[in-house]
Design a protein that fits this description.
disordered N terminus, two-stranded antiparallel sheet, 3% strand, 14 helices
């Protein structure tokens, strides 16, 4: 007697797989596609970031002179000597960058709030006005502040008439009736040049807030101040953290504002690095100062991000 067994038919349009052979696996080339896509970015980072970092690290532990040449002697004392000689410039850079960051936040948050919730059909126009300074050279924008803060200009005359310069002079931010070549001028330049870096992240964060949350707060009889304190500001913290980082980090290493708007008493660490690299030609000290600045900023940024409690950036 012949036994007949029922076997499932192959789907229409597809041939049944031969007996004893497994289903074909996806091609190996397809699995490598993501890595090939990452290759250009990785090469860019290696060539323009990793290799220069290794070169600077090697330079910082060299000794010698420009005439006799520099050789790697593992002279790590250069770091200590650089920090001991130029710690006032490091402290000044942190203070100036911190003050500029606070001013950018105080000025940028209301403007970002206005663009996100009140600008309406003028939103794109205001955003263009925020970005417009980037179409002008950083150097030209800074030089313009020399005219704005000139001794005979309307800004200084108004501040003198209001006796504001008496207060700023008392706390050491200005020198008598002058604003140029003082810490206040440097901080004003830093604030102006890096203000868009604060406004744009704040606007992006505020624009994502659901407007129904404000309506719900109003339905619960929350005042506008309470709504801002309990709803708006906490939800905009990722933008606050991003904006402060994008402002503080470049401001701490800036040297153009201190060079054009300040004096020898307002030199920042960026000015020292520029002088060591381009004028004194002491490359090991300049490289060591660069690494110390980078390490200090990295530590401060890490502590700040973890203390801020923003999960998006930790």
């Amino acid at each position: 007697m012949t036994t007949v067994t029922d076997t499932p038919a192959a789907p229409a349009g597809k041939a049944a797989a031969p007996a004893g052979k497994a289903a074909p696996r996806p091609r190996k080339r397809g699995r490598l596609v993501p890595y090939w896509l990452l290759l250009p970015g990785m090469l860019w980072l290696v060539v323009f970031f990793a290799l220069p970092m290794v070169y600077q690290a090697s330079t910082s532990i060299q000794t010698g002179s420009l005439e006799d040449g520099f050789k790697v002697t593992w002279h790590f004392a250069t770091y200590w000597d650089a920090l001991a000689d130029y710690w006032p410039q490091f402290l000044r850079s942190v203070l100036y960058a911190g003050a500029a960051t606070i001013l950018c936040l105080a000025l940028g948050y209301p403007l970002a709030y206005l663009i996100a919730f009140r600008a309406g059909r003028w939103r794109n126009v205001v955003l263009i006005l925020v970005i417009a300074p980037f179409f002008t050279s950083f150097l030209i924008r800074t030089l313009a502040w020399k005219t704005i803060l000139s001794d005979s200009g309307p800004v200084v005359s108004t501040l003198n008439a209001l006796h504001i310069l008496d207060v700023t002079s008392w706390i050491g931010m200005t020198d008598g009736d002058r604003v140029l070549a003082t810490p206040l001028a440097v901080i004003c330049g830093l604030t102006y040049n890096f203000l868009p870096f604060m406004i744009l992240p704040l606007y992006t964060s505020l624009e994502r807030i659901d407007g129904r949350l404000h309506e719900a707060a109003g339905d619960l009889y929350a005042s506008p101040a309470t709504t801002f304190r309990k709803v708006t500001f906490p939800l905009s913290m990722p933008g606050v953290v991003s904006g402060t980082l994008l402002t503080f980090i470049p401001a701490a290493g800036d040297y153009v504002n201190a060079d054009l708007l300040g004096s020898t008493d307002t030199r920042m660490v960026g000015n020292v690095i520029q002088t060591q690299f381009l004028r004194i030609l002491d490359y090991p000290t300049a490289a060591a100062l660069s690494f110390i600045l980078m390490a200090a900023i990295l530590i401060m940024v890490t502590v700040y991000i973890r203390r801020s409690g923003t999960e998006d950036l930790v």
